[in-house]
């Protein structure tokens, strides 16, 4: 049984740098490699640091969203600032969210672990709510005891 909560959240905005994921949605190894390569690129070229300077908190967001029938993936921060030209404004709605908490040795491991638990266990077990699309995100919230800690936030509606 997955450990999750249902929480009300105010609407919020993530400013994100994006990439299209080309792997088939069932090719988890391919998708995870694309995500990992993308994070490495935006970290090394300084684009993520520029976003962090605009952030309202220290959280780092990994956002997944279907846009125009494409699987898009974003590295972002919560911000009220104007988005840089290469970034996208991602609006998360006010409402109910399924939240899964976790920790892992690295941010990559955390994102993969949270998504697996959230979509593989928690959503199927949450009988009173449904995910009807829209952006979802794993949120890197810091470090504790040498582990990266964070949460997965999935907007849901009551069934």
From TrEMBL:
SMART domains: AraC_E_bind
Domain of life: Bacteria
Official protein name in the record: Transcriptional regulator
Domain AraC effector-binding intervals: 2-157
Species of origin: Paenibacillus phytohabitans
Pfam families recorded: Cass2
